[in-house]
Amino acid sequence: MIPPGPLNNRVKPGISSAIYWEVLFWTEYNSRSDDLSSDTFKYYPKLRVLKLSKDVLVKFPSDIFSPLTKLTDLDLSENSLTQIPCNLPSSLVNLNLNENPISDETGCGRDCLSPPDSLENLSLHNSNKGVFRRKKFPRFCESVPSIKYLDISASSLDSISSEDVAPLCGLQRINLTSVTVSHSNGTCQKLQFEKWLGDRKIEMIGSITAAKHDPNANCSFAPTNEAEEIYRNCTYKLHYQKFGLISIVVCILLLACILAAILWRRKRKRSTKKLDLENSSNAMVTIENRGSDGKTDEN
């Protein structure tokens, strides 16, 4: 559903149909960050897909996405964002930040990424373009086992290591197309990183190019203790989440069984009571019939 105008003429409460919209595209409107406020999306409580791309947006109010409790897909590609928005919806599954000059400072008072636990796909293609030149692998504040796909293609990195990807123990695919590493020991870093991915059956799209190659480098492929510790903590979190989900399902099934048993007992009790009443009624009829037969015999 496409709105009737750009952000600075955004839908007002008078358009009642807005509350039913599930998909909203705002592209190439040349909106400014000043056009955005905490109330911008409060009229769209049912939005599942939101696209704000090909614009000049630089930042967002920290609570701008708070009303979007059902949002699963957010596309902020091809803007001028230097920070990843704070307080993303806990329902978010897909986040597209391609073609943004993301810097080291990611906002929210932290210099690391803290995506919601629901996030499965994160795209940061060419996210260090422009003057900011982040040149670092995305750094996560804590383990994010939910992420299954990560795109860091077309990135120029100073270095790369297994510690960078260790917080993503649920990762299944990673796009490394046109990724370059400028570190003097880049060849070893590339080989160690790719071995880490291979050992964990993570599919690699493309490959890393080491800008500086040392043919005499003595590379160690063993992961560091720090990487192993980070990965181990992530798997604990993943197992805990799965256990929590299984526990919820088991509890629901158990409650359903208990409810079914209660309903069955009530139904059986009603059936038994009805049968007793019928038997009692039949007994009364039999007694009355016998009484009538006795009187007939006396006559």
UniProtKB/TrEMBL annotation:
In its keyword annotation, does this UniProt entry include Membrane? Answer: yes
Which residues span the membrane?
A: 243-264
Q: Which InterPro entries match?
A: Leu-rich_rpt, LRR_dom_sf, SLRP
What is the superkingdom listed in this entry's lineage? Eukaryota
Q: Keywords in UniProt for this one? A: Leucine-rich repeat, Membrane, Repeat, Transmembrane, Transmembrane helix
Tell me yes or no: is Ion transport among this UniProt entry's keywords. no
The protein's name is Uncharacterized protein
